[in-house]
Amino acid sequence: MQNIKHFIYDFLIDKGFSETTAIYLNMLGLLLALLLIAFVVDYVTKRLLWKFSSGVAKRTKTDFDDILIRNKLPRAVAHIIPLIILIEFVPQVFFDFEFTESIVENTLKVIAIVLALQIIRRLLHSIRDYLKTLPQYRDKPVDSYIQVFMIFAWLLGLFSIIAIVTGISFLKFAASLGAASAVIILIFKDTILGFVASIQVSINDMVRIGDWITFEKYGADGDVTEINLATVKVQNWDMTITTIPTYALISDSFKNWRGMMASGGRRIKRSVIVKVSTIRFLTAEDVEELKKIQLVTDYLNSISTKIEAQNKESGADKSLLINGVNLTNFGVFRKYLQTYIENHSAINKDMTFMVRQLEPTPQGIPMEIYAFSKDQRWVNYEYIIGDIFDHVLASVKYFDLEIYELSLGHNS
Description:
Pfam families: MS_channel_2nd. The chain has helices spanning 2-5, 7-14, 19-59, 64-70, 73-77, 80-93, 98-131, 142-166, 170-176, 181-187, 189-203, 248-251, 258-263, 284-290, 294-314, 329-342, 378-395; strands spanning 212-215, 220-227, 231-236, 241-245, 255-256, 266-274, 354-357, 365-373.
């Protein structure tokens, strides 16, 4: 090694160069030779490692090695060997220049730390991309965890670089940061809150990528497209993007429609208001006329026989309709709608469905249809509701009922 260090120096001295000139030219020649060797080793190592990793990836069944190559991890790893050569031989090149040697060594150590961070980043990104190909992780906030690891890695790398530049040992430098921990926590408050929130969101399975959520406070109503350490991105139905702080998912209230999507039905809960003044008892003639409506024919035949027998048994005076048991046009209409919903092809019969009378209002009595459509897609869902209530509004008049409409000065 000693002969190598003085090879050019001795040659130049023999040729009559001054000692100072020989020292500088010797250093320059060794430096160029070292850089050339490092470049050749880097090129060869990169080519060999790339061919080897590509061949292995083609022969294996797993996609993970393909993702490693796609993220160029082998290329980053190939830089390790030439960097080691440079660090090892720098003292031989700059043996006559201690100050320069120290600067170059520290610079190479900083480069080594940055290279290590790049390798870690590409490895973590490869793990993230691979996990996203697995069904059980596809809707999990993997990005949040990768970002947290990278933050800690970059902080550790940054502290190591500062320790190298300042000449302070890493342990002493880390210990001195204890006094500044409050400032660090304040600076990274959102990151810490986001990290804690992303863990709670994942553990409690509160939100997944692809979930439809409604978050009124932030004006969000759409599908979750991305869950990061600090933010959750929601693509609204109008194609706008809403960004929500991750910690807001555990500190505020929001609605997740995943349960509805997984249930096999989407709820229909809508009512029409019937004018009270149009509700009345039905005469025998009215009942006979309503029997022409096929959906209530069997019901009216059955219930009429029972009512007639009950009234005879109780001796009800039917000269007044209010006496005894009677049918109302409102009740028959409710039964009609119930039968209509039962026979509607778009309604999920395995879930709750009913037609109910709600509490009277100053406008009238609401008649509500409560059911679940089979099709959960928004456009189709709205079409189903429209189809049902088109029929409801058109059928009211056959029962001698009227829907409430706000009067604008005309007789109602």
